[in-house]
Each structure stands twice: as C-alpha cells, then as structure tokens.
Amino acid sequence: MYQTDKEVDPDNFIVDYANKNDSVFAILSSDTDFIIYQTKPHLSLYHLDLSSMRTILYDRKCFAERYLNIQVKQLPLFACLMGNDSIPYDDLKSFHEQFLDGESYAVMKTWEEKKKKLSIVIQNICDLIRNIRWTGDFPEEQELEDISEKVFRRKSETVLLRDALKVYTIDSSIPVLSICSNVHSELVKALHEKHLKCSSVCIYNLFCKKEYGSSEV
C-alpha cells in the first residue's frame, strides 16, 4: 500500500517509488496504466490466484512491438488516443468512429462484437502513429498541433494532449509529503516509518494536514 495526497494521481508516486527502490521487482495492480509507464514489470491483480500466488506479467516491450507494432516510447501516445484518465472517451468518440464508418463500439450488444470493433480502432490508431511517425514527445509543439488537428479536428486541444502525455513522465517534480508540525524529530521518524509500513496511516496524514488516496504497489 502506498499513500498519496488526494489531489495527486497515486500512479506517479507508485512508479517513482518502484523506480527508486531495487527491492520493488514489480507492480501488482489492476490499473493497466502501469503497462504504459517506463517502470518495473506490471503484474495483473485481476489474474492473481491467491492459492498458488500466480498471475500474469505484462511485457510492455512485447505489447508495443509485437502486438501493436509501435515503439515502447510511443505507448503513452497510444494510451492517450485510446482514452485514459486525462482524455475521456467522449472527447475521442468522433475520432474512433471514423474507423468504424460512424458506428460506435461503445453501444455494441455483445463483448465479442465490441472486441472486434475495438481491435479495428486499435489497429488504425497504431497505423497512424507508425506511418506518420508520431513520437508523443510532449515538448514537440508542432507534432502536438498536428495530432490535435487530426484527432480533435482543432489545434486548441494541444494543451490537453500535452498534459495527458506528461502524466506518464516521472521526474523530480513529484511532491513529497512533508510534516507540518513542530514536534520532536524522533516522533516524526517513528510516524513516517509506520506510514510506510501502512500502519497509523490516518494519523500520519492528519499529522501532515493532508487527506490521502491509496493504491497498491
């Protein structure tokens, strides 16, 4: 368990923690965003068998190069164009439906039917990324404008796209929980250790004068 501030996406904290700690060999989660991040291997919580402690490991390199036929570095762009927490499906609806002759896979009656249509959308998006050679590099303003115009039919969504891509970038800008009280350092240290061990979580966050959300490592 890893606690974060309520206003910050916990995924970034989890990835940052995993990347900085050699003791973390993988991230066990049902959140498929961890396939997109450049971090430790993603183990599926959904497929976890507690009796045997077996699950599925998602290989992002294999996923990108073998199944999507794009580069690993293009995965964040793929995720954004498919729809994620930053870019909702409604914003991409028209873009997706152009590959389906105006038909929406969101209203298909059966999962098999929806999966078939979804695979068409995935294939076309990957073809676009590969053939136009979009990198998804958010500092590239011209590329973002081109993508925005192609996807949203207007360049004004460049900021939305840039912010969505930046979510998958882990750097030193991730805020750190800080103690907001003048107390003995030994008490602070003890509370911090209990917090990382997931005991006294509420006390620690109240001590920091922060609410918290939680996700799994």
UniProtKB/TrEMBL annotation:
SUPFAM superfamilies: PIN domain-like. InterPro entries: Coact_PPARg (IPR026784), PIN-like_dom_sf (IPR029060). One of its GO terms (cellular component) is nucleus. It comes from the Eukaryota. Keywords: Receptor. Belongs to the constitutive coactivator of PPAR-gamma family. This is Constitutive coactivator of peroxisome proliferator-activated receptor gamma. It comes from Nephila pilipes. The lineage of its organism: Eukaryota, Metazoa, Ecdysozoa, Arthropoda, Chelicerata.
